[in-house]
Amino acid sequence: MKRFEYFEPATLEEAAALLAQGAQALAGGTDLLVEMREHLRAVARVANIKKIPGLAALTYGSEGLRIGALVTAREIELSEIILQHYGSLAQSARELGSIQVRNRATIVGNLCRASPSADTIPPLVADGARVEIHGRARPVPLEDFFTGPGKTVLKAGELVTAIVVPPPAAGTKKVYIKHGRRKAMELATVGVAVTRTPGGVRIALGAVAPTVIRARAAEKLFPDIEKAAAAAAAECAPISNVRASADYRRQMVRVLTRRALERVR
Amino acid sequence: MSVVGKSVRRPDVPGKVTGAARYAGDLALPGMLHAKLKRSTVAHALIRRIDFSRAMKLAGVKAVLTHESVPRVLHYGSPHPRSASLACDQYILDRKVRYWGEAVAAVAAESEEIADEALDLIEVEYEELPALLTVENALASSVLIHDTKNNLVTDPVRVKRGDVDKGFAEADLVIEGTYEMGRPTPAYMEPNVCVAQWQEDRLTMWISTQTPFMVRGILAEVLGLPLAKVRVLVDHMGGGFGAKQDLFQTEFLCALLAKQTRRPVRLEFTRKETFLGGRSRHPGKVWLKQGFRKDGTLTARQARVTLNSGAYGSHGPGVTAVGTAALTSLYRCDNLMLEGKCVYTNTPIAGAYRGYGVVQTYYALDIQMDEAAERLGMDPCALKLQNAVREGDIAPSNHAVVGHGLEDCIRRGMQEVNWPVKKKTKNRGWGMGCEMHGSSAYPGIKEQGNATVRLNEDGSAQLFTGTTGLGTGAHTALAQIVAEELGLRFEDVSVVHGDTDVVPWDIGAFASHTTYMGGRAAQMAAAEVKKQLLERAADALEASAADLDVSLGMIRVKGSDKSLAVKALVSPTRGVPSKQFVASATYTPTKSYSFAAHFVEVQVDTETGQIDVLQVVPVHELGKVIHPVAAAGQIEGGIQQGIGHTLTEDYVIDPVTGRSLNAGFVDYKMPLSLDMPPIRTILLETAPDPGGPFGAKGVGEDPIIAIGPAIANAVYAAIGVRFRHYPITPEQVLEGLKSR
Amino acid sequence: MKISLGVNGEKRELEIEPYRSLLDVLRNDAGLTGTKKGCDVGDCGACTVIVDGKPLNSCLMLGVEAQGCEVVTIEGIRHPLQEKFMDLGGAQCGFCTPGMIMMAKALLDEKPHPTEEEVRFAIAGNICRCTGYTRIVEAILHVSRR
Asked: Quick one: closest CA in C to B641, which residue?
């Protein structure tokens, strides 16, 4: 780890100014500090955004769910409301790292890190979430937020302040299935999130493309589960790495999509 | 017995549960500097130029060492008495780099951060050489990693017995196969660390090592110091599993940086460096061919073992020799032709790791036994029982086997799980794997156990032992042995260890040596002290020494109520000992074998290919169990590592660049709490060894050997797919199912 | 930078570098070496401490972020878990033990009577390489059954 300069901006404006000058935002630290220690990122200036008021709220109302930038994965995991109305998000939070990590890691941080295998992204994409950004008048649909592995639409100086997720229609079922080599402490080799509404199904796939993707062809084939699962496997573009081969990932997309669809049938 | 056989509270554990226990990395000395290593980013190259002038200009940097500024002395890396280590192939820092990640420079600075920043300011120009990343390439290439023929670390090991051609000719079934082993690594929780401090011309080193006397010896030799000027101190250790026996370049560098800066220096590996700079298990291949009569009797065994040493020899010769020699036994066979080779490649160094070559060779052997059983139409347990090594057979060490431990384990396990277990559920199955392993490093090392026992003036005893405390509870066992032999309460025996200035010489804690060799020496020394005690007591009690008994601190005349407390005998005048009751003992090379049979149930998800271990019933024969909880703990921990080896652990090296791809816990996957199955440990004492303390034998390495083949055999029972390698990945399971 | 925080019930004022982790601050500046560094990147749990009632990896928190917090380390507790770990073989080399006990204590504080599954789930982020977890889980369940 190398030395860096440390700032504690008191307002969003101060934070934005620091970020515009190249500082990195520090929320949970469970990605940023790791990348700095592993020498994956050289960071000279760190801006701790936890002193900024108004970013820590987790609320649910008629507009749906609002997750402030500083809400942790552990809060999501333990929230009764989320378990009831956003079950796939709760499940994904539950499988993120360990309890120790979840007590610090923020959902917004998980999104901004934009790893294609991030756990909380597929459920939020399947739920039609939107991202509110300080510096922009209109929120960005989460599906359009990512531009590549580790890359988002955020420009220098921009900071995500909240995620908003629409309220579920009556009778909605949500599932998140993660594939890993072990039962915990895994980066997903494949992640499948399905949100089933009276109107149809939304399927989001993680870890099998440069960003999380919607399996739109598969969605159209539902309720033919076998066909939908096969289509999902064809729609993804996985890579081979030390965790799994592209071929295996493709096979798992098929298996897990099928299992997820069976649970929401 | 009053002390041996009981799970007494280990004296080292209270400090561990309160945080008071000190490990080498906890030590902070005034003025201490922090050292870091710059590591190569090429797999095979000459260092054309190395320039650290910019690093020296960074405020806070105190010294930088490169190959140009350290003594150019060849050493063994694994510094055992020469009988075991035959590869004298390491320099402290060399002008040639032989694997991606090898250290090329060392920096000492006021803080870790400054040292880290300094590494970027050291410029290295490499002239790349062709990298030999596989054993096949290395054997065939004209490029040499060291100056050895065909890139072999040493001459191949050859073992011949009887006449294999005749044996195969007599066989009704001849079966052969090639078995392949990946690269697991020990991943102890405490990263390697050492602290060096000089006082005048005397060097003191605090270090997490299993072999303090070896460290002292090699440091003295390479740095040109007399032994008396080097003191090595080992406090608590956070695990080693065999892999903390070597010198890692770090000890020399730490000492030299401390000398140059005239300040204490600490060098601690990052987790990543425990992979890059540590020691993993030897990957390799075993080609195995065996002949059987139709009644199941073995008639011949031929094998070629080829192990990948990585860039340096380390324990390669020893591991190859022990792994190959192990194939002379376990399942008895009169006609043997075995060959073992160890090959250099430009990959991270393989070294000693729990099981020491036998994990590899018995994986092949035990799986092939199951294969043969199927072809012969026999139950695998029946076939293994039929051929199981038994009393009088010559073990790999050339000693005769004592008792029928292997048969006892197999039979007991069969009983426990109701073997053959009826298959109730699809894709579920039971399998069994066996092993035997020796206690002590003999005959590879002409080793010895040493101990000194001394009574304090209050009648308590101190045991001075050179064995190291890895964390297994071995020192508690030694104290129990001394207490039992001397007739004291356990609480009245303490163990002094970890200071080469004070304790007797020892090879260190490895090769399952501690309980057997260290324990026997402790028992012998205690027996001698007891003799001195009873001679003196005979006078005081007006009886003959032969009529006296000592138990729980009281000396009694047999058949009478005359007694005398040990304390009173030792100092009849308060606080002044009547004489020094002290004795030393040396226990010279011998060997005993422990046995195990593991019974495992697995379930396979045939859609994802994932293998779940549902339960393990390990049956171990140990001669005499000194501390039941500690023994079971060794077994359960060994099983965790073995499950990892077999299913999920592999330290992967990029086949093109030689780069490490998963040098961390994210992608080097060890079984965690949710992955571990219930384990029902069974300990047997049916074959005590007269050479061991109270008949006790070692246990540290056995569990990691038996579990692997047990899992592979269980997978076959579950889904009918035979795997002859580890780790068995889900992708390979799916492929196997497709071609079934 | 100067920080002021509670450590094991005591108010501490420390002068620290902002780029140091809470783990390094505890070990080097506060003199509490009981908490261990196993990986420094949040993968192993050896550095687990409890901050404002929540167990977390102290390697992934900067010391400056603990300003005004209540931090509890292994040195600050006296808990039946420690006794049970001693008696039932829950500790061998001991390096994972402080973090493991802190995580187990946090679990029992929240859930005094967990099932075995819940225990294993809670310590899923604590790596032990010596015990195979069997006796750790046993020790925690033993305490929970009181």
From this structure: C129
Q: What does the domain layout of chain C look like in residue ranges?
A: 2-74, 80-144
Whole-angstrom Cα distance, residue C6 to residue C26?
11
Average pLDDT score over residue span A121-130: 98
Q: What pLDDT score does B79 carry?
A: 61
Instruction: For chain A, list the contacting chains (3+ Cβ pairs, <8 Å).
Output: B, C
Under the banding of pLDDT at 50, 70 and 90, the label for residue B80 is low
Cβ of A2 within 8 Å of Cβ of B112? The answer is no
Q: Which chains touch C (3 or more CB pairs under 8 A)?
A: A, B
CA distance C10 to chain B (A): 17
When scoring A252, A253, A254, A259 by the number of chain B Cβ atoms within 10 A, the one with the most, hence best to mutate, is A252
| Element holding A252 (H helix, E strand) | helix A246-264
Q: Which two tokens stand for residue B584?
A: 């030393």
A138-196 pLDDT, tens digit each: 999 999 999 999 999 999 999 999 999 999 999 999 999 999 999 999 999 999 999 99
Beta bridge partners of A66: A59, A164
User: What is C80-144's CATH number, 1.10.150.120, 1.25.40.10, 3.40.710.10, 3.40.190.10?
Assistant: 1.10.150.120
Which residues does A contribute to its contact with C (CB < 8 Å)? 1-6, 26, 28-30, 33-34, 37-38, 46, 48, 50, 74, 97-101, 103-104, 183-185
Token output for A83 = 């378990």
Kindly list the residues from chain B whose CB atom is less than 8 angstroms away from the CB atom of residue C19.
113
Q: Which of B112, B667, B674 is the closest to A183 by Cβ? A: B674
Q: Does B612 touch chain A (CB under 8 A)?
A: no
Q: Is the pLDDT of residue B577 over 80?
A: no
Contacts 24+ apart (CB under 8 A), C77-85: C77/C101, C77/C102, C77/C105, C79/C105, C79/C143, C80/C143, C80/C146, C81/B17, C81/C105, C81/C108, C81/C139, C81/C140, C81/C143, C82/B17, C82/B18, C84/C139, C84/C140, C84/C142, C84/C143, C85/B13, C85/B17, C85/C136, C85/C139
Q: Is pLDDT of A32 > 60?
A: yes
CATH class of B284-443+590-738: alpha beta
Give residue-wise pLDDT tens across range B139-157.
Answer: 999 999 998 999 999 999 9
> Is the predicted pLDDT of residue B50 greater than 80, yes or no?
yes
A122-147 mean pLDDT: 97
**Interface membership of C6 toward B (CB under 8 Å):** no
Q: Tell me the residue type at B226.
A: P
Indicate if B448-587 has the same CATH topology as B284-443+590-738.
yes
CATH of domain B448-587: 3.30.365.10
Cβ contact C40–B271 (<8 Å): yes
pTM over 0.90: yes
CATH topology (fold) of C2-74: Ubiquitin-like (UB roll) (3.10.20)
Interval B279-330: pLDDT, tens: 999 999 999 999 999 999 999 999 999 999 999 999 999 999 999 999 999 9
ipTM score here?
A: 0.98
When the pLDDT of each residue in chain B is averaged and rounded to a whole number, the result is 94
Helix-strand-coil percent breakdown of chain B, rounded to 5? 30, 25, 45
Judged on CB neighbours under 10 Å (0-12, 13-18, 19+), B560 is exposed
Amino acid at site C76: G
Q: Where are the domains of chain B?
A: 19-129+187-276, 284-443+590-738, 448-587
Rounded to a whole number of angstroms, the distance from the CA of A98 to the nearest CA of chain C is 5
CATH-assigned architecture of domain B19-129+187-276: Alpha-Beta Complex (3.90)
Helices (H) and strands (E) in chain B, counts: 18, 27
Chain C interface test: which of A4, A24, A39, A100 (most C C-beta within 10 Å): A100
